[in-house]
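A quick word before the example. In earlier lectures we treated sequence and structure as two separate objects. From today on, think of them as two lines of the same record. Here is DsbA family oxidoreductase written that way.
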Amino acid sequence: MKIEIWSDYVCPFCYIGKRRLEEALEQTGLGESAEIVFKAYELDPNSPVESDIPMQVGLAEKYGMSIEEAKKMTDNVAVQAETVGLNYNFDKMTPANTFNAHRLAKLAEQEGVDKTVSEQLLQAYFIDGEKIGKDDVLLRIAEGAGISRDRAKEVLDSDEFADDVKMDIAEAQQIGVKGVPFFVINRKYAISGAQPAEAFADALRKAAEEA
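And the structure line, produced from the sequence above:
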């Protein structure tokens, strides 16, 4: 069973959706037979590599709301994250460009540690409040996953895997992805958003029965 996941490392619902998929895979006993492929998507390609603007301030500016309204919005998301065991730290988060994070994830896929790197990127951003657009953060994550620092630096200092990231984003547009997370099971069943684990479980069972 092949599960393709279009997501971005600064998308709060992508981390929540990832956890709910993992819960469904465990519930259905299909985890060992599932091949999970992470696909790149950029929520905001124009985000700076690093910023010191607090997340709530950035959201207020982006959506034309007050900082209080933005904080209420992030508080609501944090409550949803807690339901899957994630303690989001919006007070430490700042906007970040994720293009290089996606390139690093492509290297990780080549090295066979894509699951580890994707989890570490999400944790670094949402739990630890780290600036995942910065090379030093990405290099530390790569090393922690067992990737050679020199090899990771070689990728970050070049355009390597840039075309792979762009291809994922173009494919998302072709199949009509309007937002992430977006899950495709066996190229047949699509799930948009961080749906309840039961929705994932139902789709997984249908795909397994047909396979």
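Notice the following. The two ends are 8 Å apart (CA to CA). We will return to this example when we discuss secondary structure assignment.
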